[in-house]
Amino acid sequence: MAWALGRIGWSLPIARIAGTMIYVHWTFALLIVYVLLQQETLTVESIVSSLLLLVIVFSCVVLHELGHSLTARVYGIPVEAIVLWPFGGAALLPREPEKPHHDLFISAAGPVVNLLIVIAAISVYIIVGIISGSTAEVWDELPESLSFDYLIAWILATNIFLALFNLIPALPLDGGRILRSVLL
Ligand SMILES: [Zn+2]
Prior knowledge:
The mean pLDDT is about 85. Helix content is about 55%, strand content about 15%. The protein is α/β, with parallel strands linked by helices. Helix 2 crosses helix 3 (about 100-130) and helix 3 crosses helix 5. The chain has five helices and five strands; from the N terminus they run E-E-E-H-H-E-E-H-H-H. Bound molecules: zinc ion (ZN).
């Protein structure tokens, strides 16, 4: 969930976004198996909703990491890859930022992306509520675990968690790097 110096390892390339390759580490398959095993009964609905929630969580992780990598590029550091592991992701930087304030902005960019997603999700929720009269009517036909309210709640919870967790002032988390760059 932070940016890191490192290697891609045993990973599968899945996409290229804004010039950055996104890889999924092989251990990610274990997470999918684990999530599916958590279901009391495996139904099409439970499988689809579990995989959808995984996609939501890791899309937000990718956007967080893209925040780091695009800001790093502004400071002349070409980020080669973002790797997703079961416990999060990392933008792999080929070298350390030259100046403390570069590190400050590169590190802060990830949590800022999550806060922007929170604002966007709340805005969408309010706008859809105004347009439809009641958000409950929007996807009335869908089961509870795939409803609009449920998905918005997941997006909010995921991004609030990602922002707050990464802002814990301890290395190698973003908060630790931010604190270090302010103190240097
Ligand atoms: Zn981060």
